[in-house]
Amino acid sequence: MKWNTFGFIGLGLIGGSLAMALRRIYPDCRIMAYTRTRATAEQAHAQHVIDDICESPSDLKFSACDCVFLCTPVQSNIAALQSLKDVVTDTCILTDVGSVKSDIHQAASELGLGGRFIGGHPMTGSEKSGFSSAQAHLFENAYYVITPSEGTNPEALDIYRTLATDIGSLPLVLDYRQHDYVTAAVSHLPHLIAASLVNTVHDLDSKEEIMKMIAAGGFKDITRIASSSPEMWEHICLSNRENISEVMDTFMQLLEKCRTEMSAGNGAAIYETFERSRDYRDSFSSTSLGSIKKTYCVYCDIVDESGAIATIATTLAVNGINIKNIGIVHNREFEEGVLRIEFYEEEPSQKAAQILRQHRYEVLVR
Fold first, then answer.
1. DSSP 334-348
2. 329 versus 120: which is more confidently predicted?
3. Can you say whether residue 289 is alpha, beta or left, with left for phi > 0 and alpha for psi between -120 and 50 degrees?
4. Cys staple from 21: which of 10, 167, 193, 247, with CB 3.0 to 4.6 Å?
């Protein structure tokens, strides 16, 4: 068994990045796709990411596929599964990249596709969405969770695991029910918390928007994921609501405990809360990516004078280093340098720090 022809339903951030990654590692493979907005498929075709544009999820072109990736919101993936059922061959593997697995596994079983459906969830992403934000290296060092169905062909599972490894991911095989509980805690709840925190500041801010103006540092770091796709997160929350509600109960109990200890002036309990979280957080691995791709930042102290930022940008550009973003940090409550330089990957951030230190700048890498 070998997969040479791939189909895609949807070419957003994840679907587009996956198609790019497959094109890079399997240059002779054939890739076809259907997208809700035809212009997206045409863009992918013009960039030679895909070979064929399909007119619908039930397009007969999909009958040539060895594997079809469903890359739309959760409920839309289930609808596409129904459309593909009578189009693809009996040996074609159907998979998805969704953040919730239980609903689609159940739907696959009800459609008689249980043995041919293998769930997939690359634990990576960005606060941005759409094909224009797709990157072939998005999956590097990120866990790629694979959730086989009952009756999944072991050979097909091995091929899937190899594919995940080939695109730079770390394959992890889990039961789909366990997957949904784990992601409820480490991915879904954090997005709800980030959105609620941003909305709290929005509702409490003055007409002059002072809170918005000085928000920086820690606030921007922990709320960055609030910029994710509302449509996608609506589907995720509704599809995994039981698990999310369960982990949310624990979170709310801990938050209420913090308020109680603060009201009582219990400094020791407050200290223990931060100490326990710090110790556990510091034990996390920094080598693999979560559901939102890690940012790589260099903080640099500079003198506030004309041309200072341009000098640094030029120095890095001359050394072939691409910058994702650069700007002055006005609120330095949680930052160690006045200039924040953001990079797409870790290697250029480390190289930039080394070069800037050679030019006698005070630099911190985060």
1. S-S-SEEEEESSHHH
2. 120
3. beta
4. 167
